Here is the input.
Amino acid sequence: AQSVAQPEDQVNVAEGNPLTVKCTYSVSGNPYLFWYVQYPNRGLQFLLKYITGDNLVKGSYGFEAEFNKSQTSFHLKKPSALVSDSALYFCAVRTGGFKTIFGAGTRLFVKA
Amino acid sequence: NAGVMQNPRHLVRRRGQEARLRCSPMKGHSHVYWYRQLPEEGLKFMVYLQKENIIDESGMPKERFSAEFPKEGPSILRIQQVVRGDSAAYFCASSPTMTQGARNYGYTFGSGTRLTVV
Here is the structure.
């Protein structure tokens, strides 16, 4: 069965510092990997995806993610955090079908 | 080009009543997915539908919950005889058809319906 783990409930980082939000996955077959962001009382917004090709994927708002097949990880990164990046971040995985499985989410706090 | 539209945004029901949640997918999208988000928890898959077909309902509770996506009109998630444990945010997402590369498509989510059972 496919699954996604986000080992950190919360990540705290100072504005201007780099941030990393961790994600590991377990699937059979080649995964499609996604990151979404959720702001308070809003739906999820798509940030970026990995399908194939370069292991470093660039997405919206300056975010990027690195796919590591050997470690089955897909960590979300940003070189310089903004206070406005504070939100709930979800990693997700999809295999051959259409169903997407989401992680439990990681709450990011960026302090000014 | 309107996104995924969900209504109502907030719904309050007394225990034992029925709740109907509506989702209109993005124009041109024929796949709809329903997810439930409980407080301080992640998104749990409930059901995946195409027009007039339920493709995967493995996440739906066996009783009281049902979903449909008719040929015309929005997708409906129906919860009968609601209980307090049904209180949650229910999100709908849509994607294009397979021929349009849906497998690698990032979902478009609606803003959700927040159901409160009192």
Summary: The radius of gyration of chain A is 13 Å. Chain A has a mean pLDDT of 92.
